[in-house]
Specification:
The chain is of the alpha/beta class. The protein has 2 domains: about 45 residues; about 260 residues, P-loop containing nucleotide triphosphate hydrolases (Rossmann fold). It is built from 13 helices and 11 strands. The strands form 3 sheets. The chain has a 7-stranded mixed β-sheet, with helices on both faces. A hairpin with a 2-residue loop joins strand 7 and strand 8. Helix 2 crosses helix 13. The two termini are about 40 Å apart. About 45% of the residues are buried. The C terminus is likely disordered. It binds adenosine-5'-diphosphate (ADP) and magnesium ion. The site of magnesium ion (MG) has 4 residues, from helix 2.
């Protein structure tokens, strides 16, 4: 289970079986604060429905080999939106650029690298970026993880699975942001997740890139038939750009139901990161926020989400 210190917000992963019976007080190993604690009465704020029901979380990779299509924007805003919708969400950044932390305006001292290498415990590597939203940040140090995976003679593709399995049950959703290209971290991600969400920019014709990416995914599906291409998300929709409509129609004719309602081109989506805010925090009434709310509803299957009165979510 995960226990969070009420003073310093540090998350401690503790094996429930190792807690002696009748413990009433816990002490934070990081800041020394003592606080009331009971295994039964105080499920951690990080325990999602998934854990309560003993289920695996939904695991989604946001992936396409091409850069600049809105992967990180989608990963961060989808994760933030699901958290606002009351889900427990873990956002994992597998990109050496480490943009997810920047976009959320946080500076974790550790992240995915330290968890994978075993340098730090999960509790030390995880960062509570928002209520119900936890981050395993990426960054330059992931280059070392790529080398580590490549050097393994056997089982390198299971690296992310091995790192996340022990902690995943605390979450309802694990969203993994990936880097452009096809590197060892993308492969290990696709051996962990069961669903893929692929953002496709409608600004430029990326259909060729999309087909190449799907071929690479198929090469993994040969070994993992549970891996499903679940959503295609058109991004940068702008009907002033004549190509936009054509590409959208082409996508819909090729992929039908897989195609989600598009994310429109919206300047606030590129401004929000500089303020370290999700689009829901930065401009809740914007098209960008509306579109990402739609995506959250589609992914969660909860059409009722974000009705008037839901916490933290502006309505238009
Ligand atoms: N719908 C959108 N409208 C306007 N700008 C966007 C939109 N989606 C993303 N952006 C901006 O486009 C750039 C690339 O997006 P990003 O999410 O980083 O792509 P990727 O992760 O695929 O490289 C970023 O500056 C981002 O803020
Ligand atoms: Mg990115």
């Amino acid at each position: 289970m995960i226990v969070i210190c009420p003073a310093c917000r540090k998350a401690h992963h503790i094996a429930e079986g190792r807690i002696p019976p009748n413990v009433k007080v816990a002490r934070c190993r990081a800041c020394g604060t003592r606080f009331p604690f009971s295994v039964k009465a105080s499920p951690s704020p990080n325990q999602g429905k998934a854990q309560r029901e003993g289920k695996r979380p939904r695991t989604l990779a946001i992936a396409l080999s091409k850069g600049g299509v809105g992967k990180t924007t989608t990963a961060v805003n989808l994760a933030a939106g699901l958290a606002l919708g009351g889900y427990k969400v873990l956002l994992v950044d597998t990109d050496t650029q480490g943009q997810d932390a920047y976009m959320l305006g946080v500076k974790p001292r550790a992240g995915l690298t330290e968890l994978v290498t075993g340098e730090l415990s999960a509790g030390e590597a995880l960062y509570e970026a928002r209520r119900d939203l936890w981050l395993l940040c990426g960054g330059k140090s992931l280059a070392g993880v790529k080398r580590l995976i490549s050097r393994k003679d056997f089982g390198g593709e299971m690296t992310l699975t091995e790192a996340l399995k022990p902690i995943e049950s605390a979450y309802d959703f694990v969203i993994v942001d990936t880097s452009p290209g096809w590197d060892p971290l993308t492969i290990t991600t696709l051996f962990y997740v069961t669903e893929i969400l692929t953002p496709v920019s409608l600004e430029v014709m990326t259909l060729h890139g999309l087909l190449e990416f799907f071929k690479s995914v198929a090469s993994i599906q040969k070994y993992r038939n549970i891996l499903t291409l679940k959503y295609i998300l058109p991004t940068f929709l702008d009907f002033r750009v004549s190509q936009s409509r054509k590409i959208l129609e082409k996508l819909e004719s090729l992929y039908g139901e897989l195609v989600c309602r598009p994310i429109r081109y919206n300047i606030v989506l590129s401004e929000a990161p500089a303020f370290g805010k999700s689009v829901f925090e930065f401009a809740p009434g914007s098209h960008g926020a509306q579109d990402y709310r739609d995506l959250v509803r589609r992914v969660s299957g909860r059409e009722d989400l974000f009705a008037v009165g839901d916490r933290g979510v502006g309505n238009d």
